[in-house]
Amino acid sequence: MSFLTPLFLLGGLAIALPVLFHLSRRATRKRTAFSSLMFLSPTAPRLKRRSRLEQWLLLILRCLALALLALGFARPFMKDGSPIIPISEQPRQVVLLLDTSASLRRDGAWTNALSKSDEVIRSLRPIDRLAVMCFGRETRTVLEFSEWEATPPDARATLARARLASLAPTWEGTLLGQALVAAADAFSDGDRDGRERGTKEIVLVSDLQAGSRLESLQAHEWPKDVRLEVAGVTPVRAGNAGVQWLAGSGEMTTRGKESVRIRVSNSIDAANEDFSLAWRRGAVPTGELVRVQVPPGQSRVVTMDAPGAALGADRIELSGDGVPFDNTVYVTPPEKQRLRVAYFGTDNPSDSAQPLYFLKHALESSPRVAVEIARLPQGGADLTATLAGVKVGFMTGLPTGGAALLRSWIESGGTLVAVPPFAAEATALAREVAGVDMNATDIKPTAGGYAMWGEIDFKHPLFSSFADPRYSDFTKIHIWRYRRLDIAKFDGARTLARFDSGDPAVIETPLGKGRILWLATGWQPMDSQLAVSSKFVPLVWSVLDYANVTRAEVSQYVVGDSLPLPVSARPVTVVGADGRTHSPGAGATHFPLTPFPGIYRVVADGVETRFMVNLDPAESKTEPLTIDDLEQFGVPAKSAAIGRPTMGEAQRQASLLAVEIEGRQKLWRWFIVATLAVLLSETILAARTGRRMRAQAETQEATP
Predict the structure, then answer these.
(1) End position of a domain, from candidates 297, 314, 334
(2) 551 is a domain residue
(3) Counts of helices then strands in the chain (DSSP H, E)
């Protein structure tokens, strides 16, 4: 048995007090008056020690109560059969967690990181175990515990140093929380044989920059037996400025040129605040310098004119910062998209009562998109020229003699929005283009004088943009007349919307690789209020999006992201930022190899798509985190004291282990219970003894 606070055992010396009390002689209670002593002054009798002890059982109980109380306050515990070994004698399990993110590219940071890692290796003994892991966006195991143990002790350090020499800073972001969770889990993987392997330590070698992401620690309960020690890495130069392209920032300047917006951020410990930005094609500057002043700890957004396509500029570079790893952002200058949409009908585009008038205004060109409406009046002959480069067509009247060509165009992937003004046109279109006899009837609502939109399939891409409850109310659009379309004979027909009467309002019928979207009512004022509602323009553009006509907003990716690949019947080629050509396998939907920032080019069916892959903007936040930031997520961390534990540290660890064992056993509670039981027994026995002694004394007084 051991004691956590052995000084309380000195309280056992109080056992002498009951012994002394038992040896002391009490004054007699019986008084006798003598006449011959009446002239003497009374004197209190002196207490004398007894020559022998009396009431042995009471004495033993009182001494036992004091002894038990002293033992309880000394907090005894049992060692569970395993001695408390000082930490200096215990084996150590160490996971060396090395940061290889882009921020380690700062001058001197990587050299410092390798130096601290080497100190960890030199501090290990033959009984210790080591695993090496590195992390950036992903966490990789460089050296496993099993490899360390399988290597002869005199060759282990050489093996670990060789693995470290194969590493270098990447261009990835810093997912520190994910790396710490993986490092903590590495101990459980190494202890599957059930053997006790001593202390568990994670030595984190990192610059702990503020852009490190710790979110993964929120849902992870940190193991109580795993300690984290932080070996901070310090670069040669403090401060840093970085650049970031703001996605979706293409716009027109006051001079009528395309532009991009760039955010320049400056760290709080920076010494400089004057910078300049310039477009570059490789190392060659193109265009004028744009100067910007960014005080330390702040950021500024700068609008820059996009250079012409002939200049071939593909990046913007920041000058004036002494830490260049994040001073380049790759940007694809915005290109104006050109859309060609066909319209079949005899409408006058300037007549505000006709469908083409409203369609033309809904498809007006913008600085980013130029829309051309290719018209073929009803009865026109040059349908082939009209459909050239067209994927979407709107029809209010069937062109004469062009049904076969129109059907072929739809079957090859075209989307036709059919808005027949009368039931006869709907029947003719279904028969001549789709080859289906469809019954159609003109309906003019009589109940209330109008119909309304009722059930709508908001899961369909055509209406998905209206799924938000703020935009899903179509009931304010009144329909004065519509066509009741019988689509029972269409294979695969799907009703996307209905009127409140239950009749179909929007129908999709597939035809080959394309489709026909039937609108049972027109948008012109004679048919409905659709054209003058806020739903019309978004609905028209939803049709273009559904037909894959519009190009998605250019978005940027960060290093490590997967790039989407287009669906192509022929092999797809990817040219990486390093100039290497890759050929993804057939059926691949994403390209995962983006280890460098730059422009990645995807070529499919002769069409080249350029993707911008940039450094994670969080890497520019180089101000260091504190250990308190880690402790907020429940990770007990401290600054690393690399080397073998000192004697003071060993004693402290032994004391902590003793406290843990004693707190688990809590033997002191049983000593307190035993003390109370002894005191209760002593009280009962003393009461009985006292009554017996008083009875004897009274008997003696009554005797003459």
Answers:
(1) 334
(2) no
(3) 14, 34
Give 6-35 as a DSSP string. Answer: GGGGGGGGGGHHHHHHHHBPPPP------G
Q: What type of residue sits at position 583?
A: S
- For residue 355, give the CATH number of its domain: 3.40.50.880
Nearest to 398 by CA among 378, 375, 422: 378
- CA–CA gap between residue 586 and residue 107 (Å, rounded): 43
403-442 as b/e: b if 16+ CB within 10 A: beebbebbeeebbbbbbbbebebbbbbbeebbebebebee
Q: Which long-range contacts (CB under 8 A, 24 or more apart) does 401-410 make?
A: 402/376, 403/432, 403/433, 406/433, 407/433, 407/434, 407/435, 407/511, 409/514, 410/511, 410/512, 410/514, 410/515, 410/516
pLDDT at 380: 47
Closest to 434 (Cα-Cα) out of 417, 411, 412? 411
Q: How far apart are CA 247 and CA 606, in angstroms?
A: 27
What whole-number distance in Å separates Cα of residue 509 and Cα of residue 475?
Answer: 25
What is the total count of domains within the chain?
5
pLDDT band at 528 (very low <50, low <70, confident <90, very high): very high
Q: Helix/strand/coil (H, E, C) string of 120-149?
A: HHHCCCCCCEEEEEEECCCEEEEECHHHHH
Residues 364 and 509 in one domain: yes
What burial class does residue 629 get, using C-beta atoms within 10 Å of its C-beta: 0-12 exposed, 13-18 middle, 19+ buried? middle
C-beta separation of 556 from 245 below 8 A? yes
Angle at CA of residue 187, ends 186 and 190, nearest 5°: 90
CATH number at residue 178: 3.40.50.410
The Cα 362–Cα 216 span in angstroms is 46
Kind of pairing, strands 369-376 and 315-319?
A: unpaired
Determine contact, residues 509/434, Cβ cutoff 8 Å. yes
What's the DSSP call for residue 538?
A: H
Residue 231: strand pairing partners: 205
Give the CA distances from residue 358 to residues 367, 399, 600, 614, in Å, rounded to whole numbers and listed in that order.
20, 21, 41, 42
Decide if 194 is inside a domain. yes
Count of beta carbons in the 10 Å neighbourhood of residue 36: 6
**Maximum Cα–Cα distance for the chain, whole Å?**
163
Domain span including residue 256:
241-334
Out of 275, 307, 334, a domain closes at 334
3-state secondary structure of 680: helix
Give residue-wise pLDDT tens across range 56-102: 777 787 788 778 888 878 778 776 554 444 445 578 899 999 999 99
Q: Are residues 283 and 314 in the same domain?
A: yes
User: Does 582 map to a domain?
Assistant: yes
For residues 615 and 102, is the Cβ–Cβ distance under 8 A? yes
Say which range, 103-112, 240-249, 270-279, 293-302, has the weakest mean pLDDT: 240-249
pLDDT digits (tens, 9 = 90+) for 282-296: 878 887 899 999 999
Q: Which among 221, 225, 307, 216 is positioned nearest to 259, based on CA atoms?
A: 307
From residue 286, alpha-carbon distances to 293, 312, 313 in Å are 21, 9, 7
